[in-house]
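Incident review: delayed structure delivery

Summary: a single-chain prediction request sat in the queue longer than the usual turnaround. Root cause was a stuck worker, restarted by the on-call engineer. No data loss occurred. The affected request and its eventual output are reproduced below so the record is complete for anyone auditing the incident later.

Affected input:
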Amino acid sequence: MIISNRERVAVCLVCDDMGFVRVTNNIEDSRFGQSYPCSCTITARHERAGKQLLNQSGLGSLRRLNFENLISHGRTQDAKNRDQYELAVKEAKKYANEPNKWLTIIGEHGSGKTHIAAAIANASLSLGRPTLFFSIPDLMEHLRRESLGRDFPESETMTVDRIFNIPLLIIDDCHSKINTTWAQEKFNQLLNHRWNAQLPTVFTTPTLDKSIGTRLNIRLSDNESSDILDLGIWETSTYSSLGAMTEQVIKQYTFDNFLSDGIGLSPQQSSELIGLESRLREWSIEPDGWIVLTGKHGVGKTHLASAIANVRLHQGDRVAFTTVPDLLDHLRASYNQDSQDSYDQVFRRLLEVQLLILDDLGAHKSSDWAEEKIYQLINHRYLARSWTVITMNGKPSELEPRLASRLTFTELSEVYRVDAQDFRTLRPETEAS
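Output delivered after worker restart:
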């Protein structure tokens, strides 16, 4: 069926779908008699340009990620971290409107780094600013394909010149390993060009360390030319551990199932153990400073430390539990570039967690490296007066002097000796065969 012009309903009531308008009712208008694009034409041009920018942005499925569907305070339950996350999101929005410098978004795996970076890209594109979004593997693939003279899909015009000079470039997971010398040289050329030309560039990474390369690390740490958005600690659970003390295991150790009267103890020893348990119950409800528990193997030190941890977990605090030998093994392993958690990321959790249980201090094989790592951890929490519970088989005086002085500082630390029999080898008489 053919529809006549009279029957057709115009989409644009201004120009009757002609695409242009002409001033005919005001002789004094400088545009009198001239044709100029209608607002519908201008809008359509902007939409086509926006679609083209979006198609060439490299965002792909990440087009759906924006600031509107981002949880502005993150997923953490910790009030301090929620505030830090929210501040980072506000700064990211400002940057998207007016990008300058280089910007690095730091956060743990799953913290929302990619979402925030994609939101910056989408906001930038909506303002008509050409923007490219790449992960390291995708970026290297595009550079490789062009170097080999291979054609790109018609929607992609990813020439080296365009990538090098795009007004805003976003590189996701910049810590990803670059496998070839050629790719590393090309990546360095890109960074050098954008750094010297002062072109806005956004990076995401779990942490600033050797995994992103020394040269890039230095530039991202340059306060004059680069800003950092730190998303803070992000945990899927309020509990984290290194070693065998998983959340399921630690829940088995409470004050209620601790044998506070001991097994085979003298009346004085039993009274002291009951008094110690009572004090630790009080401390777990209102933590202040440190608790150091000393004593032989199997006397209940770890049980009491775990009981404290369970009270704080019930209050919603973030708690980390680690045995010192397991901690050192994990830190050594995290030097591996293929490790999911970088060294700094692992160590940072322990530095900043609200309550740290440091089990079996002194059980590690001593070396300069081990002593320095343990000292850094203990000294940081000492200066911050962060809640810390430490168990050890020996005496604090037997430790390296710097550690000993911090563990025995009376204004911060309460030191108790757990005097009991080995709970793992003794049973109450009623259970004896």
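Verification: The longest strand covers residues 387-392.
Action items: add queue-age alerting; document worker restart procedure.
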